Known about the structure:
Blueprint: E1 2-5, H1 11-16, E2 21-26, E3 29-36, E4 44-47, E5 74-78, H2 101-115, E6 123-128, H3 130-141, E7 146-150, H4 161-171, H5 177-183, H6 185-188, H7 190-197, E8 202-208, H8 212-228, E9 236-241, H9 253-264
Helix pairs in contact: 2-3, 3-7
Amino acid sequence: METLNYEDINTKSLWKHNNQVVKIIKEDLDFYIKLNLKENNDKLVVFSNGAYDPAKSNPPVFMRSKWHEDFNANCLYIDDRTIHNTQLRLGWGVGTKERHYLRDYSEIAKTITDQLNIENNKVVYCGSSAGGFMSMYLATLHKESTAVVNNPQCYVDRYDKTNVEKLYKNIFPDYSRDNIKKQFAVRISITSLFRIQKYVPKIYYIQNRLCKTDMNRHYTPFCSFLDKYNINSTNIKFILYNNKKMGHNPISRESTVDFVNQVLEDRIAMSGF
């Protein structure tokens, strides 16, 4: 595994570490990414993780990294340092009490974008479930970029009780759940982020309507809070599909690749999955 200081990220160092897992040292912490760069390509897709299976892999984890050849874009895969050295299966980029790791990943992704001379409007953040939360978050911090998310969590606190309590005990052991929701709202709520940033990115929100848990805990509250707080949602394109058997599982690799490539090429066809 190669190591690179954040301050040393430039075009030359990125190409030197192409097709590798890279440990980036940023403000005395290690963050892990995987890069797949392509010659003469002016687009970038940034992938975030959902829950991982500890029986199959150990952090750092780079979901969908074997798909990179399918995309008409450079690919950047980000690990979530939040889950390192814990029993957590997912961390939503929450980080530590003192440091929000999604902010670090955002700065890393934007620096890579700049060094590769890629325009912001040609960057797509992609993920499902917790990775969908992270992708919407990162796109909000990266003006003019786009998010493609599938069955995302919009509110960390609304995920299943067991995993949320594990996260809170690891990250905020001295805080009550109510205090976490108040003091760290901007880390765990997408609509809180929209309000603080006064900005909503372009989002393609792909949701299985027949996954009742997702609809009740995330999709419906998300829409309600957009209206409650008069958040301008014109940039959000909701795409509902119906697959009772798949539930919370994301759409297929073929459908994901096809949709993201259409977004990259600005030629979306609103077909079903």
